[in-house]
Amino acid sequence: MYGKAFAPEYRGALGALSVNSSLEEVREAALGQLRRAEESGDPLEAAHAQLAVAESSRRLGLVEEAERAWRAGYRAARAAGHQGAMAWAVWSGGTLARQRGALALARRLLTLAAELAARGDDVVARGYALAGLAETGRIQGDYAAVAELHEQLLAEARRRGEARHTVWALEGIAQIHRNTGAYDKALALFEEAAEIARTADDARGHAWALRGIADVVSLHGRSEEALALLTEAEGICRRMSLAGALAYNRKMRGNVLYRAARYEEARTAYEAALEEFRAMAEPRGTALATLGLVKSRARLGRAPEETAADLDALAGTLRGRGLHHTREMVERARAELLEPVAAGAGAGR
User: Where does this protein have coiled-coil stretches (predicted)?
Assistant: First the structure.
């Protein structure tokens, strides 16, 4: 059985905040607590407050503020001599680095966070750091390297009855199955994650699970069902001010519409998602939304040579970033959109 979801990144005097608190509410409370901690000269409480500032800012897309906050939180935790708090600060920094596309830095920081958590005997911080490493490998497409770690983290979360981390691990494993073509397995895991998140009152996890379900059911041609699920997830994201999740939700809406050959609507969705990803300096989301936009424009009649140039430019921006799966998607789009044109031109000669 799973207990109610909680947010371990809200610590100390902020520990009463709900996992479902809006991010503006979290940020405001954290800034107030930071002022009080600094006035009282309590470096540990300052570290806890800076962590909440960093995480709420990151999820709101305020990446520069998040960067300053996690670094200040680490300094405060070090001054307090608290390795667990140091681990949480570095975990936040590693998560932000992944969001900003600095994947090598993300791995270094998350590895350090796991080491600090182990020395500080903070089991939850260590689990979150290892989860961050697993997610970094997964978004790169290194599934073989991280599948076992995902399963290990799932088993640990189930054993502790920790709903939020169980949901995260289920969604990660489901995404691996989805990306490798095992759609039925993916759907079952996303549905299990959605049910656990719902009963544990983990709104954020529920929104991500609904997005995953929508993705898979749309692959089976059930586009209206998928769009309804995305609308439900969007409502959750808006209530909690989840800027990143909202942008990915909108990008998925573009995917669903594209699969349904509703290319004009898909283009509009991708354009909106692209604007949101750029505003938060999120390179992976920016690349995925750009790819969807290129494909939609091609289906709406963009000249093949212009589509080829768009894909070349996108491949160039991805070079060296380590986003192997995204680069593969670009090459599949090239085959989908341009090879039939080339074959037709050859047949006409």
Answer: none
